[in-house]
Amino acid sequence: MFNASTVRTRSNLSVGAALLLLIAIACLALRILHVVAKFRGHAPDAFGDFNFYLYAFSVVLHDPARLYDHDALIAFLQGMGARSTGDDIFYAYPPQFALMFAPLAQLTPLAAKIVWVSVSVVLFAVGLYLLIRMAYRGGERGVGLLLVAVALLSFPLVEDTYDGQSNELLFFLLVATFALVERGKGYAAGLFLGFAMAIKLTPVAVAGLLLLRREWRTFVIASVVAIALTLITGARLGFDVLWHYVVSDMPRLNGMALAMSGGGAPMNNAVRGAMQTLSTTFGMPMSAALLSIASHALVAAACALSAYLVFRRHRDNRIDYALAAMTMLVAYPILEPIHMVLALIPLLILLGTAFEARGEQLSALAPRWEMLFAAVVVVLLFFAAKFVSYTVAALIIYGLCVARYFPPVALGRQQAYRAG
């Protein structure tokens, strides 16, 4: 016999999800019109951050020593007609990133941008499909629509595409890693994670947490792939380029990034940026030394807690993946709004698993409170970063992930009984 109340609830969810999806599509359509207008107005400035990548792709093969040369970058931008030039513009990705995508330099700037953005959007769509399949295993179609709507309502996603950034690529690589580990295909997962580690340093945190979960196959293959790509880069460009990036270029570029907009939020939504902004707002600005010590202490505490929880392993593997992805973001020294595209991974896992076990308390928080906090995050990510809004969103998601490791005692016993 059908439960009329349950049927009504599912129907309301489907309708609400469909309406939310329509709103998300409408917002995206407006942004697309903005992009088209910018292309018509001045094409070289469209997808402006990709111009920095294109510079790296253009010089990496014939003059790698100029990869992080600010004056050469400015000259390149002026040569292609870009109007966005200044001291706050620089290329900061590892040499491996430039070498892997150097073939794009063979195209015209416009063609390279179209290829890059188109592939990024497709990869994000594939990653979103894999993530939703992993996050929700129930049979309600409305939940899937809701998760898609939440993802598309994310302003960081829109901003990442608008700037021609790389976080959609990283999103796909991390989701593919988690999805393959979940299916028991650890070796294949390592290929994706290794590529992510080679082109950007921060996924090393995810690899470390997977190692604590005893995902040996994934960790070993990821390490081999990352090392192999690094050796190939060194052989092609010269190992002095890699060494100089680690000991000189990276610290200098991080310092430049911290200096942008005063080093605080909303440009830098990391713990450090939020502390700097809040202390200044309340009239008690922290010194650089105290700011560094305090932020490093808080980040170290968060990482240590994550390491302990992941080592214990959650009964639901997906929560470990969510915490690993969120810990990577919390540990970022410079968390720009566009990086919050990756926060969709833990957010959708939290929402999907909650709907999957509707009526059960999976967390230290009651279901209604967990959903309320998740809704606050969705609202915060709908708008552009203001003050410390994205820092708050990141900390809420991290807190929701941690709370999943401390369900009520009765539920823990019930789960243990079922497992036994």
TrEMBL record:
Main location group: membrane
Transmembrane region(s): 12-33, 114-136, 142-158, 187-212, 219-239, 288-311, 323-351, 371-398
Protein keywords: Cell membrane, Membrane, Transferase, Transmembrane, Transmembrane helix
MF (Gene Ontology): hexosyltransferase activity
Membrane topology, from the record: Multi-pass membrane protein
GO cellular component: plasma membrane
Subcellular location: Cell membrane
Family: Belongs to the glycosyltransferase 87 family.
Name the UniProt record assigns to this protein: DUF2029 domain-containing protein
Organism: Paraburkholderia monticola
